Amino acid sequence: FNVKVNAPSATIEPTMWGVFFEDINLGADGGIYAELVKNRSFEFYKPMMGWTVRQKHFTEGAVLVTNRKAENTANPRYIQVTVNNAAKGDLGLVNEGFRGMGIKKDLRYDFSVMYHLPQSGIQLHVELVDSLGNILGGTSVTPAPTGEGWQKAVASFTANATVLKATMRIWFEGNGIIDMDMISLFPADTWKNRPGGMRADMVQMLADMKPGFIRFPGGCIVEGFDLSTRYQWKKTIGPIEERQLIINRWNAEFAHRPTPDYFQTFGLGFFEYFQLAEDIGAAPLPILNCGMACQFNSAEVVPLKEIDPYVQDALDLIEFANGDTSSTWGSVRAYMGHPASFNLTMMGVGNENWGPQYLERLKVFTAAIKAKYPKIKIVNSSGTDPDGERFDLLNTELRSMHADIIDEHYYRKPEWFFANARRYDNYPRNSSKIFGGEYAAQSDHTVSVNNKNCWLTALSEAAFMTGLERNADVVSMASYAPLFAHVDGWQWTPDLIWVNNLQSYGTPDYYVQKLYALNKGTNAVPLTMNDEVVAGQDSLYATAAIDATTHELIVKLVNASDKLQSNTLMLEGVKKLAATAKLTVLQSDDLFSVNTFETPTKVAPQEREMVVKGKQIIVSTAPYSFTVLRVKIL
Ligand code: AHR
Predict the structure, then answer these.
(1) Pocket around ligand 1: residues whose beta carbon is below 6 Å from it?
(2) Which protein residue's CA is at the shortest distance from atom 1 of ligand 1?
(3) Which of 71, 527, 617, 621 is found 20 to 30 A from 120 (Cα to Cα)?
């Protein structure tokens, strides 16, 4: 290989490798959002979903769901419990958690409830219980009378055991009538120990990748299966009890459960998404509904003459993220605890939308956003069929409209990823940038239980990504999708990171993404074999970059053959190199190797050093391997 180290070509944007977040597969509720109580405000499609009533005798009381829709449209339902001379153990409520509750020994748990209690006389006994009935910890709460209004009661306790699938029980003791809403339980070990925050292990997996951007909140949930279930960011901010939940679009055709119990409570809302982006050093990339519901479902559109509120949402979001604290929406951000700007530089209009209806709506959004915020880059959607005519037509149209960034999605077989390592070599330069917004190699058909994140899928993505890096002047961003999946609650495979109620592990695909993101560099440099880019010759794929800030050369090599290959890198335009280089290698002889909860790092990076003499580096690449070499340029 010839590497022209002193001929930096494409600039690799700091945003190049990012993450795509969607509340699919229990990604948010039941996943990264650490709330343990399912249906805490009784607003699910069936009010008592997730709850069961435990009652010894009919005389000990009654449980009633009350709906005050006229008074509180965002959170109309609450539960009323009438307690008649009940002793602990007579009358209770049990919450099953999302797929059970993951409980950790010696960790503090914070219980809270909004309640209305005209007169004292009731005591609540809160307990965590395992499947055998063992008590894992608990506390008692004696709520003070509230008078007319509602108050919040809080209590904490420490768990005495680690259990993957516990439940929470509340026993009622005494006499009286209590109204309850927002019944909540959070572990204390949330990310940055924020009360009501996110699961730290899951956020850490993202932070470890040092992603350049985070796209949120999806995906199809942006669109909704009809417009009434589209994502509306304004309903996801402010006090959590005022955030109006909606059914999750992923209850639709892919749901494996007989009852639709997957909702978006928006405890993780747009403020928290921006905060998460800031925490992990990623540029925020919100995607907004463009006035069209999911075209795979309903194809419902808002008439153009009624599109203004949708466009206003986009303008207001920019003000919410960046506006001065004296502005209407900037003041809301400040009130929520973040007076400083969230530095929003880009936003998406539409997800996987197409056709003339999309273009008409996109034009209205673009004109309004650019008129008020000319510096904001707009991500345009180009659908899911990367080889299709519709896709080409749309891309041509978008280019003629001078789209800033075009979002391409590809869920294809590993063969497609290997074959498309040159996909962007001939894309127009000096035109719209490309965002590989969702991609994942499919070992079987999408959503199948056999569709595994195996070493073959990861290796094919690593090969494809050499082409993204080489064409960084065209491709400014890329992200694997979907990001998270709960092992007991998924709707889609494959997924980058798998979790249960207590643990998370990265797939081989995760480690590929992480290695690219951690070894990004600032500029691609030419790497050729016989004057050609290396994209499949002898099943090798390669790319090179320099990091101008650390003065390093970074070479990525994919050996997709079943043979050990010796690769000689002839470096041009460099005087001297450090005496050692660092090699990070992902490898497995078995293309169908997978990581699991039991063997989470079966396919994971191994690091070693190698001696470098002169300006010629010989790197042996093992069969089926992805190697990253870093060496200091002196
Ligand atoms: O990543 C899963 C889904 O795939 C996304 O929600 C959608 O944009 C795409 O079709």
Answers:
(1) 22, 24, 218-220, 351-352, 384, 409, 438, 481-482, 492
(2) 482
(3) 71
